[in-house]
# Entry
Amino acid sequence: MSSIRWWCACLILVSAPVHAQGIDFLDGDGFENGCSVDTDNDRLPDCVETGTGVYLSPMRTGTSPGNRDTDNDGLSDGDEVLGSVAGLNLPAMGAKALRRTVFAEYDWFDDARGCAAHSHRPTLAIVNRARDAFAAMPLTNPDGSTGIDFIQDYGQGGLFSGGSVLADVDADIAIGVNGAEFAAFKLANFAANRFRYFHYVLMPHSYAMGNSSGQAELPGDDSIVSLGCSASTTNVSNTILHEIGHNFLLRHGGNTNCNYKPNYNSVMNYRYQFPGRDTNCTVPGDGSLGYSVGTRIPLNEGALNEQAGICGIATGVGVDWNSNGILETSVSFDANVSDSAQLTSCGGTITAYNDFDDYANLNLAAVGTANDRGHTHEVIDCTNTPPEAQ
# Structure
């Protein structure tokens, strides 16, 4: 009789599952196998983090048991598989633990300042263009896919009902992302359980009554896209990537504030924010939306090789910097003269500068370390405006 009681007790011990968000973590035989151990503290027991790079189910996630954020997007594996502890259903929204995911919520103003009545709500064309640019990014994910899933809430319904139109008298945000007005709008309209998961993008007509396309924390989660009467599909989608790029810790020169560098082929560069990146090594932008891959040659403005241009001799595409009709091998020329702050941001007028690999340095995890109320992060003003607004 006693032996029977002992056998039953043991059966109960080995069969007892570990629960997380309603999921029983059992191995294929129905027995616990390391399910009491969570090495990386991501709420997924080691027994389900199979480390294969292939997601099958919450019972076989393919994630690493020793890395709480296998895909390095700032969202823990547990949150992307189970949803957050605070009830944010990230997997239903499209999050994947083996593929990078970035979430953004847009709130906007409707107004009639400076032109006919208009709304700053992102259109489907704007949202899709930004989404496609992220999807095309040359980053390899743990599951073998490339790109980033950019999931945007612009009030389209269902789980994406956070984005909304906001009432404001002047359609302007005083001061900017570190001001009391921005903070009040965010507090009233951004769900608390989205904090540290979603970027918050406010889309007024302007901020601080200025002529600026936007502003953002660097790094962080808050930004403003303010294009006034120039809110075309291209202008808005390009500026979304520009401002959220600052959240990712990118500057106007990549890793520096030196702006208008012709060899920094990124939407972060004022030279390419609105026209898009250069795709044929001729310097002017021709529509491509994205960040820099960091492959363009270094430039020394004191001795520019016009035959090498911005992509190197092997490409056969030169740049006539001084416009004299001759491709010379050593020319002194201020190639980023449009940067009015180059004495401080570039170290002088005739200087040397490099390209920067934005993709290798994207800090997607910055959203998880954002300071919601204190705004202790650096704030970047983006004074660039579309040509039609100048």
Notes: The first helix runs from residue 2 to 15. The domain at 101-249+362-389 is CATH 3.40.390 (Collagenase (Catalytic Domain)). The radius of gyration is 25 Å.
